[in-house]
Design brief:
Shape of chain A: elongated
Helix content of chain A: 55-70%
Oligomer: homodimer
Order of helices and strands of chain A: HHHHHHHHHH
Strand content of chain A: under 5%
Structural class of chain A: mainly alpha
Number of helices of chain A: 10
Radius of gyration of chain A: 20 Å
Largest sheet of chain A: none
Distance between the termini of chain A: 81 Å
Largest interface: A-B, 34 and 34 residues
Number of strands of chain A: 0
DNA sequence: ACCTGAACACCGTTCAAGT
DNA sequence: ACCTGAACACCGTTCAAGT
């Protein structure tokens, strides 16, 4: 009975040709996003994959569904890193290190910051869930550092996400600024540190 | 002899119809940018202006030439504000106030941040000159505040411009974040303030 | 069940033909 | 000198027709 229609009403597994097309589309998308950023032409992706436009749309109803496959992994990874750092480092180190990893990796995906912002308040976006989980992990790092007294208490997870995304964006606007990524990030992170109270 | 071709080899004044078309295009562009941001459709602008595409291109060879007309005024105005604040306020107040005015006004032009970044290293851009002048004015405010000991000395004009543009960008990505403009800006500006040395 | 590719409504940019 | 609008090479999205 292998490969016969399921009798339990659950969705069928993909037909072999469909499965192959799906994989091809994802491969092509990876290459295209690598070259052109998250705004890569969908037509071009279909062309590279050697499938018709309809096939691309059948597998991925919109651009974000396609991106979710590529970026979801990254989000999950970064959420995992947050958890690992939380367990192994001081609250302050964990936060600073995570922010560094976040912005460093983002350079590989031009347009990532815009895609992430678009997903923020759009619960229907395919990227919403994995992005939210990552943000929550980052927010925990922030709270820990705040509880330990290292970070000013009037900044919240949304502020942190906004600022770090803003850096991500600015950094891929111009190569001359990309070189200053670390410096810009530290200007912001230093600024978030609780200003020491004046002398005794 | 009024209206006859100039004999001195200098460029002629625009013909009356050309002058009218130019004005119409700018009017249409203002409306379109207002509604759709700096990425407004050029075709749409020509349509609204009631001119052919060729006419639009004749007057403005590319999008930036058109934007220069709209944004150049704004840049000049902000450069002027910087000079005025420099004369009338303390170094720290002048800087903080100027940054507030810069980001507050930017909300009126969606896409402005991206257009400004594009112009940064592109000397052929029509926006280059007026944008540069504004940046230099802002850099003076920064230097003054640094000389007065209010701002950390390892931030330069490029950093300041990058950060303030990053805020401008993030703020028009989502209305929920636009509401936090002032707060985000003050997180950054506070952060740039020189950390007070530890007690005696 | 899945695929193809033409069709549609848009772009930006160029240019021959008109006045 | 200036204008028009068709032409070209691209998009994203949809959908009838095929297997």
């Amino acid at each position: 009975m292998t490969g016969t229609p399921a009798a339990d009403g659950r969705p069928h597994a993909l037909r072999a040709d469909a499965q192959r097309n799906r994989a091809r589309i994802l491969d092509a998308a990876r290459t295209a996003v690598d070259e052109q950023g998250t705004q890569a032409s969908l037509r071009d992706i279909a062309r590279r994959a050697g499938v018709g436009m309809g096939t691309l749309y059948r597998h991925f109803p919109d651009r974000e569904a396609l991106l979710e496959e590529l970026l979801g992994q990254r989000f999950d990874l970064l959420a995992g890193r947050a958890a690992a750092l939380e367990a192994s480092r001081s609250p302050e180190d964990a936060l600073v290190e995570w922010l560094g990893e976040f912005t460093a990796g983002a350079g590989a995906y031009r347009g990532l910051a815009a895609s992430m912002m678009a997903t923020l308040n759009d619960e229907s976006s395919s990227l919403h869930a994995s992005c939210l989980a990552m943000r929550q992990a980052a927010t925990r790092l922030l709270s820990n550092a705040q509880d330990a007294g290292h970070i000013r208490s009037d900044a919240d997870g949304t502020d942190l996400f906004a600022l770090v995304n803003a850096v991500t964006w600015i950094v891929d606007q111009a190569p001359s600024i990309a070189a200053r990524r670390q410096h810009l990030l530290s200007l912001i992170v230093d600024g978030l540190k609780r200003q020491p109270a004046a002398g005794p």
